Amino acid sequence: MSVYLDHAATTPIIREAAEAMTAQLTRVGNASSLHASGRDARRVVEESRETIARALGCRPGEVVFTSGGTESDNLAIKGVFWSRRAEDPRRVRILSTSIEHHAVLDPLHWLADEGAKVELVDVDGQGRLDVAAFRAALESDPDSVALVTVMWANNEVGTVQPVAEVVELAHAHGIPVHTDAVQALGQLPVSFAESGVDAMTVTGHKIGGPYGVGALVVRRELQPTALLHGGGQERDIRSGTIDPPAIAGFARACEIAVERQPELATRLVTLRDALVTGVRREVPDALYNGDPGSGLDHRLPGNAHLAFPGCEGDSLLMLLDARGIECSTGSACDAGVPQPSHVLLAMGAAEELARSSLRFSLGHTSTEADVDALVEAIAPVVERARNAALTSRPAGGA
Ligand SMILES: Cc1ncc(COP(=O)(O)O)c(C=O)c1O
Question: Is a pLDDT exceeding 60 seen at residue 395?
Answer without folding.
Answer: no
